[in-house]
Amino acid sequence: MPRVLIADSLSPAAVEIFRQRGIDTDIKTGLSKDELIAIIGDYDGLVVRSDTKPNKDVIAAAKILKVIGRAGIGVDNIDIPAATAAGVVVMNTPFGNSITTAEHAIAMMFALARQMPAADASTQAGKWEKSRFMGVELYSKTLGLIGAGNIGGIVADRALGLKMKVVAYDPFLSPERAIEMGVEKVELEELLARADFITLHTPLTDKTRNILSAENLARTKKGVFIINCARGGLVDEAALRAALESGQVGGAGFDVFTQEPAKENVLFGAPNFVATPHLGASTNEAQENVALQVAEQISDYLLTGAVTNALNSPSVTAEEAPRLKPFVALAEKLGTLAGQMLDFGVKAVDIAFEGDVSKLNVKPLSAAALAGVLRPMLAEINMVSAPAVAKERGITVSESRQDDSPIYDNLMRITVTTEKGKRSFAGTVVAGAPRVVEVKGMDLDAPFAPRMLYVNNLDKPGFIGALGGLLGEAGVNIATFNLGRIDAGDDAIALVGVDQEPTPALLMKIQALPHVKEARALVF
User: Fold this and answer.
1) HSE-CB of 66 using CA atoms within 13 angstroms
2) Which domains, and CATH codes, for the chain?
């Protein structure tokens, strides 16, 4: 039975999901780092919000941990590179609080347009400064979206309902999707020049940090209103303070800050500045939604292998998982075969999919194949960590698909490029079981066995008898025996399933047989 630790508060309904699905669940909130390190080794899954911080030390102590789930969007508190290196899937719940966050951005727009916080404070102080708080309408104004993903799309929909015009800057927004959303796709420079209101809905990356820099703030329409309910650090806060004071920016509403909790900030006290303490996801509905989602996602992963909303692993739906399972096994075994046949550094790996398998979600298959290739060199690697490790080592990974396969219903081929050339291996799934059908361009048909012997030789009479004699003398029982060749007297291979592991001394004797080019012991 999988065990899950809930380290931050989660709704009782979410906890019940784990228990109904047979997952042993412990609730231990408010743990210190040392307390978490002391117990994390007993758990397969970890659920956090923003308080608990699974850093590299925590992950290093988590010997059987398979998944970390964040009930919410932001994962700044999770060391994703450390988790990836350890083969731990990191999931978030990006859609559970999308509406809530989008509504908060719209609320900020209204608050700024009509100066509501300042007007409220003034009125409750006994003043009646009606002429002081002259507002602006949202109707017919241009809203500039920086980031047009899920939350940005919801904001656009609400803004269009208010009869605003919407322009969007997002390098990943396709022209077709822009038309679907009813927005105009523009470059950043044009958005800055045209927008009356700018709202940010993008993650914080090296490319988006200070996307509203002093230079970009100077390019905006004078009197623009800026809303940030996404991530602190997207706007240069000191430059924004200066722009608010000069009137270049007419008002700003921030729910997020570079340093949080924001007990002090350069923006506090600026003219027409509205601040909230990271309330974007703070509604009862959102908190319940993300809790239920993270419980479902972690349960699905631990019980079925389905991967949803992962930040460091390909997604696999619950419906796909059983269909992919035999092909994941083939990919991993075929990759392991390739990895054990290499003596030189890997430069590139190409995975080709033919026939029925080409129509599936192949990303998990590529990750599994890559893990297999690298495992003989890096024992602790898995399909979560393999793509990142390959990238770190400068290994080029490519995929290709072909609708039809000339012989088989499905075929997967792994071609590995090393410093000395290329080696290719192909396999198929027959009746749910993986089989190897091509090695070094030679056709054969062999099941994978836990222990196998690979021999490359010239196809000459007497070889099979000599090989069988050596195995018999060594007390190694043959379970399966499969042959492939180019032509009589030419290159041939034998893949032999054996019940006992061939010793180095036995391999030397096989290597010494006439016409033998190569002999290897393989483990799967």
Assistant:
1) 17
2) 3-94+286-304 (3.40.50.720), 98-275 (3.40.50.720), 314-439 (3.30.1330.90), 449-524 (3.30.70.260)
